[in-house]
Amino acid sequence: MIEVSNLVKRYGSLVALDHFNLNVQNGEIFGLLGPNGSGKTTAINCMLSLLTYDKGEIKLFGEEMSPTRYDLKKRIGVVMQNVAVFNELTVYENIDYFCGLYEADKAKRRQLVDEAIDFVGLNDFRKFLPKKLSGGLLRRLNIACGIAHKPELIFFDEPTVAVDPQSRNAILEGIKKLNQDGATIIYTSHYMEEVEQLCSRIMIMDKGKEIATGTKDELKTMIRTGEKITIEIYDLPEDILAKINDIDDIVNAEYDDNRLTASCRINGHALISILDILRKNNLSFGRVFSEPPTLNDVFLEITGRQLRD
Amino acid sequence: MFWNMYKCKLLRIVRNRYLLIWTFVFPFILSTLFYFTFSSLDADNQFQAIRLGVVNDEAFQNDAMFKNTIEALSAEGDEQMFITSYADRAAVDDMLRDNEISGYIQIVDGSPKLFVKENGLKQTIMKCFLDQYSQTKSSIAAIIKTSPDAVQNISGLFDRREFTKKVSLTKNPQTDRVCYFYALLAMVCFYGGFMGMEIVEELQANLTGVGARRTVSSARRYKLVAADMLAGLTSQFIIMVVLCVYLEFALDVSLGSNIWAVLLICLVGSLAGISFGAMITVSNKLKASTKSAILITVTMIMSFMSGLMVEGINYIIMQKAPVVAWLNPAARIADAFYCLYYFDSYNRYFTNIIILLLMTAVMFSITVVFLRRQRYESI
Ligand SMILES: Nc1ncnc2c1ncn2[C@@H]1O[C@H](COP(=O)(O)OP(=O)(O)OP(=O)(O)O)[C@@H](O)[C@H]1O
Ligand SMILES: [Mg+2]
């Protein structure tokens, strides 16, 4: 579906995309995960032929993409990061207009627009002007305008920014449904939970570069850290901490703010060993947590930074 | 597809309050203000009957034709040209000296002769009247002979407004009050620049989200551009026509008698204004607010130079710096209207239209070259 190879894009001296590669298969929900400014939007705009680039090749549907490939554009839907609708047109008119850029037949279009309105749940707001819509509803309108023509390939650029959790879930469910109906989806976000929940494959990117690509499980096995253990302890002497660090399956253990946090090796089981040591030394402890690794841990381990600051 | 885009753009223009206030409401308010300012000034000058003295001697009493004509033009009513006092020579001389009359007429050697103290508008009108009288003597004779209702018909031969027009033409060809309104019409055309500005902004992916959305769609670029431009032109043209109707019928500003020629200026002027705004917007990377500031400033300067605020400034510029005058599209629009009002020959009118079309072609081409681009260095 999408083949991007060695894409380089500079804004003046800033390198926004640095030999960026991307391969998306038919039927996937592909997630682009990266912190603010990592180049997600830039990558999408290059693929859409909105931006010039310095080097590289972009193929969509197996063919070279260019601004005049209207045949390819017809099969693509785009939901931009910023809401882009006409303020003077109502919900219905907006969707009809943008759908009309792809579909000339009036009767067909009416049906498509109705379906799109149903799909995003704006039925009660057909005659509303955008300024009368709440932020979440506006996002939904933005989505409807991008997907009404039933494209085969849809780009979603952070469609859930500034949306309350309820609307967010509705949007994510909708995207899943589009995918079930046959659309291939590119989804960008800096929310790892979203990407984990939604995407069949994920690329983590930073500073215009691909850091890692795979399913979420594949990504998690790429790193040394597995399960993460947190134990509340009132007072932990240095030598005990050293002992805990000596356990085979422990990658790193720290004590701070009355909490012991320890990262385990993948598939390692250190919890019992830790609790053994604590008991032997007569140290009492409070609650114990254990979490599986997140994509943030993946990002952290590769870049040394948090995904979100 | 095309007509749907066109229709939606029209709808958006109609619903855009900010745009409509500038391009539609503002010109109406301004022209109405002009009207009330001028009508109080005009009241003394143009539309008052002139106080005339006639030497009431034997020669006058014997000249039935002249006597009838004077009486016809002195009859009270809308067409009244003179408020006439009949007296002997010494008495009218006194009245002239005391400024009770603007001049008097005496029949000398069988033909009327005008006596005045000073030269001015009223005196020239009286002179015009006498010229017209001697030219149309035969018609008057015919009327008196055949028609029992002679008085009414005679006054039909003398149009006071026509005299006034001729007089101001000989004085200074471009200082008529109508010029203000023509300059105003030119300004309105260039306020259409806002329309052009918005069209361009909404088409450029690097300026607006809707621009980006439309650029990534499968609609052909030229169709997008053409649909919006045509809708902009349609609405600007309608605004111009409505304003012309308002001027002609409500404010009594004459636009000449050739309606097609007036429509042609409206069309070409609208196109020029829109292209101008589009070109300013598309051709540089300044901020949107800076662009509208440029648009307003340039429009005001051009309108000023075509006579919007100072009477006759366009005339002076044409004398002192003809190149500037010819290259000012607003002045060309105003002058085209002026030609229709004053001249029977269309030479100068068409020269204006052709110059406007050439300038528009240049501006439009520049716009299209930029608008063809769909891909940008940065968004
Ligand atoms: N028009 C531009 N001119 C100059 N630099 C730009 C421009 N647009 C983006 N950049 C820079 O390019 C880099 C990538 O930006 P981009 O918008 O692609 O990031 P992103 O991953 O989409 O971020 P976000 O999550 O905030 O949307 C950033 O460092 C940004 O500052
Ligand atoms: Mg972005």
What's this model, at a glance?
The complex is a heterodimer of chains A (309) and B (379). With 309 residues, chain A is of the alpha/beta class.
Question: What report would you give on this structure?
Answer:
The complex is a heterodimer of chains A (309) and B (379). Chain A is α/β, with parallel strands linked by helices and 309 residues long. Chain A folds into two domains: 2-220, P-loop containing nucleotide triphosphate hydrolases (Rossmann fold), CATH 3.40.50.300; 225-292, Alpha-Beta Plaits, CATH 3.30.70.980. Helices cover 35% and strands 29% of the residues of chain A. In chain A, the strands form three sheets. A six-stranded mixed sheet of chain A has the order 6-7-8-3-9-10, sandwiched between helices. In chain A, 41% of the residues are buried. The mean pLDDT of chain A is 88. Chain B folds into two domains: 2-39 and 177-371, no CATH class; 44-158, 3-Layer(aba) Sandwich (D-Maltodextrin-Binding Protein, domain 2), CATH 3.40.190. In chain B, a hairpin with a 2-residue loop joins strand 3 and strand 4 (111-115). In chain B, helix 1 (2-15) crosses helix 12 (221-250). Chain B is elongated. At the A-B interface, helix 2 and helix 3 of A face helix 1 and helix 11 of B. Adenosine-5'-triphosphate is lined by residues 11, 14, 16, 34, 36-42, 81, 158, 190 of chain A.
